[in-house]
Amino acid sequence: LKVLSRIESILQSPRAPPLIFRPSKGPVQNYIKENGQGCGFEHLPLTIEMWADQLIALKDLHRSLRKLSLELLPWNTKDPQDNRESIRVEDLQFIVDAILEELEHKEKNSQTQSLQTLSAIVSHFQKLFDVNSLNGVYPRMNEVYTKLGEMTNTMRNLHELLELDSSAPPTVVVDTVGKLCDIINKNVTEQVQQLLGTQDIHSIINKLEEHESFFPPFQALIQDLLCLLEISNMDDILPAVQNLK
C-alpha cells in the first residue's frame, strides 16, 4: 500500500504524464473499491516496459548522435556522458545544440567569405575597365557586353570571308588580312607603273611633276577655246575649228 501511495503521489504531480493513470471500469473496479486495494494502475506494467524500451533506444540514439558529432566536430572528442550508464534527454540536447551552433557558425563564415569574394570581383572589374564608382559598374558591363557581341560578329564574318576555320585565333585573322593588303598594294603599284609606262619610282615622280606643269596651262587653253567657240563639250572643239576655215 505504501508503494501504491507513493506511485499515486508521483503520478498525480503536475510533472506526471496525463495518460498514465487510467481508472478501471466495470465490476473489477467496484470490487477493488470495496476491498480498498486498487488505485487504477492495472496498465502500469505495460507503460513501464515501454519506458524501458525507450531508455534502451535513448542509448542507441546517443551513440548515433556521438558519431554524427565526431563527423561534424572532429576536434570535440570530449563527452562527459561516455562513462555514464544512464543517458538523459539533456545529454542528447547538449550534443544537438553543439552541432547546430557549429553549423550556424560555418554558415556565417561562408556568407562573409562570399561577400569578400564578390567585393574582390567588383574591384577587379573596376580596375580592368576603368570604372571609378560602383554606380558605373552596370553601365560598363552593358557596354562591354555590347562591344563583345560586335567583336564576335566581326570575327565570325572575317572567318567566313577569308575562308578560315571558325577555331582560327585572332592572330591568324590579322595575318591573313595583312597578307591580303600586301597583295592589293602590290597590284595597285603594278597598275600605276603600267599606266605611267615606267618601272622606276623616280620616273613616276618625274611624270607627275611634268603633269603638274603641263596640265594647268592646257586646261586654261581648253576653257578659252570653249568660250570663244561657244561650245560646252571638248569633243566639239575640232569640228568647230574646221567650220571656221
From TrEMBL:
Keywords: Coiled coil, Cytoplasm, Cytoskeleton, TPR repeat. It is found in: Cytoplasm, Cytoskeleton, Microtubule organizing center, Centrosome. One of its GO terms (biological process) is cilium assembly. One of its GO terms (cellular component) is centrosome. GO terms for molecular function: gamma-tubulin binding. Plays a role in the organization of both preexisting and nascent microtubules in interphase cells. During mitosis, required for the organization and orientation of the mitotic spindle. Directly interacts with tubulin-gamma; this interaction determines centrosomal localization. This is Centrosomal protein of 70 kDa. The gene is Cep70_0.
